[in-house]
User: Which sequence fits this backbone?
């Protein structure tokens, strides 16, 4: 084995370790959050709050659902912009070795994020308008 074979194996191992580490740390964060929520709930009950009130204080499904929608919007727009930029690069015949291809990809991702920001602002205005009307 020469240096390039070892470099290829090393890069594959590192590439595969990134999602594994993300999963491990995500699970660890979830476990820690659940533990802290349980401790907070128990402390509220010890201080005289009812179990139902403690559950309601920690339960915010509307906020979590809204955050998930915004996160999905951001990722979707960023990846769509990236995909459109990749298609444009392919149609223009720009090779992946060319610096301009990477510039187009970054530009596409940035435009996707800008579009998601504008859509998010419009959605927030719509929500505020609905709150005022109700």
Assistant:
């Amino acid at each position: 084995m020469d240096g390039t074979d070892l470099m290829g194996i090393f890069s594959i191992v590192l590439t595969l370790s990134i999602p594994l580490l993300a999963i491990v740390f995500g699970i660890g964060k979830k476990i820690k959050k659940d533990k802290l929520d349980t401790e907070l709930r128990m402390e509220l009950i010890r201080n005289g709050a009812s179990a139902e009130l403690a559950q309601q204080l920690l339960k915010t499904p509307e906020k979590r659902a809204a955050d998930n929608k915004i996160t999905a919007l951001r990722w979707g727009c960023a990846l769509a912009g990236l995909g459109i930029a990749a298609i444009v690069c392919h149609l223009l015949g720009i090779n992946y070795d060319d610096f301009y291809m990477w510039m187009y990809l970054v530009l596409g991702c940035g435009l996707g994020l800008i579009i998601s920001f504008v859509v998010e602002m419009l959605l927030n205005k719509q929500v505020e308008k609905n709150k005022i009307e109700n």
